[in-house]
Amino acid sequence: MYVNWCERSVAAGRGPLIAILALAGSVLGPTVETAWSDLTFRRAAESSRWPPGTDTVSIRVERGHVLVPATLRSFSGRSVSGTLVLDTGAPVLAVAVRVWNQLQLDTLVMDGVSFMKRVRRPLAALELGSARIPDLPIGGVFADSLLGPGELGLFAPSLIDDRALVLDYANRLWAMVPPHFAVLTSDAASASGANLGRGARVRRSRAAYAAVLGPAAVAVPFRLYQSRILVEARVSEPDHDWRGLPLTLLVDTGASDCVLFSDVMAERVSRAPAWPRLRDVAVRTMLGTKRMDATVLPLLAIGEGSPPVTLERIEAGITDRGSLPDLEGEGTLPERVHGLLGSTFLQRFRLTIDYRDQVLWLEPASRPLPRLVATQVGLRLERRWGEMRVASLKASSPAARAGVVVGDVVLMIDGRTLDDLSVEAAERLLEGAPASDVDLVVGREGMRRVVRLRRGATR
Q1: I need a labelling partner for 16 at 20 to 30 A (CA). Which of 69, 212, 241, 296 fits?
Q2: Looking at the domain assignment, is residue 396 inside a domain?
Q3: CATH number at residue 217
Q4: Mean pLDDT of the residues in the chain
């Protein structure tokens, strides 16, 4: 998630790492300030539904990470192609050691007669689809082992701050949208996003990007620090008329799960002991696989709107604050952060990020669940904590009568393991001819049993 995490992993013995962070160096500092005015886009052949000048890139989503095809070019004439992890939790572009070595960005320069010094040069260009960013510095290098095959590094989308960035998980698309210049009131037309009130920022953002904001898009104003997005949140349990204390979460597309720190659970989420909890679950992060507890938040509300954006049954990891370093303290974030808003929440929306006005637009993804067919057994599945689990049951269905309950792990359907199947593919295995049988291997609390269910009318 963060480049500095990798630097600290060396001391903890988590593999080789070259840390060359250059966020405020005298060599790269001027480059960072001037490079973005030269950002150019070659218009892609796209549908007319996007405003003129929009660039779109097809993405992949794997293990909750957004992978964008990219080519990195150096002034030495070398280039590397692969994918970058689109990571709103990273403040810079950071690459793997092998990528850095292949690009040969360091240059030896003669200073005087006999003194040689090494100069770190920026990339000649970073190409993301048809978008081209010249003179881009690399802010960090980390161990190859932290990335998957073909992954080059992390890209902070805040580096493109003169456009709205639309991240459409459902359609596997990332779009870079230029603003539409509209007539605004004087308060919204002047000053920077940081100096405007929330209402003025929202109005200016909506006017600039109305062409890509659907009617259901909800504005979530955020605070921006070192390119990182901080939003307000609350956990609640409506069935018990309970609301937790306010939380500050970092929006992190590089996190496969939402995460809350263990001290926060005791201090601000007092109902947590009553919720289901799994111990020692493997969660993938940008520092490799970490072990943490996992729970399901009954309802998570983001933003301070009326009403805020809410989702029910959100999977979240619970871990010690020290396991995710560099979130707070000198040179990092100026306030106490309570956790991460990761992929288990974000993938349920179409995101539009407006860094200039500091507004995040959230629009529910339009992927309605299909109806249960007449020849099913009355249950829905979901992937949770890396396993296929029962998400819901229809009352008096064959599954309910057989004692299957919400949260059970479904290990096999008719002898077929489900590790490599999507939820949709697994649910198709439950379908069949009326009155036919289907065998499930179901796990609960470490015990397994075989359940034979007879398909029937479950509408």
Answers
A1: 69
A2: yes
A3: 2.40.70.10
A4: 79
Pairing of the two strands 60-62 and 65-73: antiparallel
394: containing domain: 379-454
d(CA 440, CA 248): 42
Which phi-psi region, left, alpha or beta, contains residue 169 (left: φ > 0; alpha: ψ -120 to 50)?
alpha
What DSSP string describes 370-403?
Answer: PPPPTTS-SEEEEEETTEEEEEEE-TTSHHHHTT
C-alpha torsion sign, points 193, 199, 200, 201: positive
- Mark residue 443 as left, alpha or beta (left: phi above 0; alpha: psi -120 to 50; beta: remaining): beta
Q: Which residues of the chain have pLDDT under 70?
A: 1-48, 107-119, 182-195, 282-289, 306, 323-334, 366-375, 457-459
8 Å CB contact between 70 and 157:
no
**Total domains in the fold of the chain:** 3
Phi, psi of 225 (to 5 degrees): -140, 120
Report CA torsion sign: 9, 15, 16, 18: negative
Element (H, E) at 425: helix 423-429
* Residues 317-368 pLDDT 10s: 898 877 665 555 444 566 788 999 998 899 889 999 999 999 999 999 865 4
Give the model's pLDDT for residue 328. Answer: 54
Q: How far apart are CA 281 and CA 389, in angstroms?
A: 15
CA distance 443 to 281: 16
76 and 117 part of one domain:
yes
Same domain, 277 and 400: no
Q: Is the dihedral of CA 355, 167, 177, 141 positive or negative?
A: positive
Same domain, 190 and 151: no
